[in-house]
């Protein structure tokens, strides 16, 4: 059973084109993909070297990102962030930390009560508006200034 693939960008039909043309096209696409990947990695490394924060969130508890891309500590929220890390170091998981925050009336950075943590998996912490500061912890201290 022969199943063909039509590649629109190159106008190539794998049923009617010679294998060498398909192989050549695949090779060029692989090279282009590798080049894009290398360029993205280079850009990310350059941002890291310059100290610019690379976070996927515009709002996160305890920090604000300046127009220069450098993280700045928000002193009013620093105590909350410290408490969350303290609870974590004491062995508390996401659910217990969430419960603590809710019981103490601590709101998310967006002003909501409670947080979005529904799973104990720490991989989800970056999705939580209250707990997202944990992803910021990997930022070197030299890149954070108190405002």
How would you describe this structure in keywords?
147 residues, mainly alpha, 3-stranded mixed sheet, disordered C terminus
Which outline best applies? Answer: elongated
The gyration radius over C-alpha positions equals: 23 Å
Q: Averaged pLDDT, please?
A: 74
**Element string (H = helix, E = strand):** EEHEEHHHE
**Helical region count?**
4
Contiguous uncertain segments of 5+ residues: 119-127, 129-147
Structural class: mainly alpha
> Main sheet, how many strands, which sense, barrel?
3 strands, mixed
Give a written overview of the molecule:
The protein is mostly helical. The chain is built from 4 helices and 5 strands; from the N terminus they run ββαββαααβ. The strands form 2 sheets. It has a 3-stranded mixed sheet with strand order 3-4-5. Strands 1-2 form a two-stranded antiparallel sheet. The C terminus is likely disordered.
Summarize the structure.
Helix content is 41%, strand content 9%. With 147 residues, it is mostly helical.
SSE blueprint:
Elements lengths: L5 E2 L4 E2 L5 H32 L12 E3 L5 E3 L1 H15 L4 H10 L29 H4 L7 E3 L1
Parallel strand pairs: 4-5
Antiparallel strand pairs: 1-2, 3-4
